[in-house]
Amino acid sequence: xxxxxxxxxxxxxxxxxxxxxxxxxxxxxxxxxxxxxxxxxxxxxxxxxxxxxxxxxxxxxxxxxxxxxxxxxxxxxxxxxxxxxxxxxxxxxxxxxxxxxxxxxxxxxxxxxxxxxxxxxxxxxxxxxxxxxx
Length: 134
What we know:
Helices cover 46% and strands 22% of the residues. It has 134 residues and is α+β, with helices and mostly antiparallel strands. Keywords: Membrane, Transmembrane, Transmembrane helix.
């Protein structure tokens, strides 16, 4: 037994390489989790805005119903635009809901002709991207 020495150099080197790989993978995993969290928070904010606009749209529709049931001149809810028998409103800022109704004043009814969600988009010009050969 005295003649054979145990060499730990290769085992130690393998252990160091494995530990470096584990450290790199753990950092990548944390970075991915953080990016996923940010994306999820942005999606949650977007969906929350859509539902808030839908709620406000339903409240506006209830106000229009109440206006149609009143006797005398029609006083439309605030923010409404009435042109050529069409009553419309745009609700929200970033995430918008556009509602348009065709009003029949004699029968005191309406028909929903448009109920549309739309997001305002602004171009991100912070990156200097290659535009091709000019």
